[in-house]
């Protein structure tokens, strides 16, 4: 479903969708919603606040998972180990700077909060810095979308509104397709790992 449809269908409840989406996923919906904010379809400040809250709470959950079940989950999903090791290495080397910037580091950001939960980093310190980092992230990506919409308006004038909405729809469809493909690949990898574990267990018996 396109973001424009979500906005039209759910009205103010769309902000809740943004919060839930950023709790689970990345910046895509924030950028596109920033473009919609430039067109007056959503409020930019409320958008930033909801993206901030969703991102903060999501990473707090991943941190808690790493703290309480990290070793057990790594035994179950050993392919996570390289990402976790890299995130822990960056945490050890850069400390505060890494906590503030891990959302912008592609390739390991999905493992970072989980990995930090497995470290000696205190919950309070992570929560404090993560709150600041989530705000920076939300402002950057919502602002990027807003500025993209503004730049488009300067280039094409009165047609900017229609054109930006068309581009928004195209980008949403493209991104949704990419997400589905990535999830399909992940499921295939999980299935292959499960088969390998089953064969290993059968052979051992």
Automatic annotation (TrEMBL):
Keywords, in A-Z order: Membrane, Transmembrane, Transmembrane helix
Record's keyword annotation contains Transmembrane: yes
GO-annotated cellular components: plasma membrane
Membrane-spanning residues: 12-32, 44-65, 126-148, 160-181
Superkingdom of origin organism: Bacteria
Keyword Iron-sulfur: no
Pfam families: VTT_dom
Protein's name according to its UniProt entry: VTT domain-containing protein
Organism: Skermanella aerolata
């Amino acid at each position: 479903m396109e973001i424009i449809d979500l906005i039209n269908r759910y009205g103010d409840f769309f902000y809740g969708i943004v919060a839930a989406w950023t709790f689970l996923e990345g910046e895509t919906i924030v950028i596109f919603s920033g473009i919609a904010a430039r067109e007056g379809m959503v409020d930019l400040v409320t958008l930033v606040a909801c993206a901030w809250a969703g991102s903060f709470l999501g990473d707090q959950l991943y941190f808690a998972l790493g703290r309480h079940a990290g070793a057990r989950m790594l035994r179950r999903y050993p392919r996570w180990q390289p990402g976790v090791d890299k995130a822990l290495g960056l945490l050890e080397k850069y400390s505060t700077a890494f906590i503030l910037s891990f959302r912008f580091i592609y390739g390991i950001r999905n493992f970072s909060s989980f990995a930090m939960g497995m470290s000696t980093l205190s919950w309070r310190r992570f929560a404090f810095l993560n709150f600041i980092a989530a705000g920076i992230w939300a402002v950057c990506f919502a602002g990027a979308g807003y500025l993209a919409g503004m730049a488009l308006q300067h280039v094409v004038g009165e047609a900017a509104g229609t054109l930006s909405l068309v581009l928004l729809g195209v980008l949403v469809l493209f991104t949704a397709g990419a997400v589905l493909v990535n999830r399909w690949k992940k499921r295939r990898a999980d299935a292959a790992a499960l088969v390998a574990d089953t064969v290993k267990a059968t052979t051992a018996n």
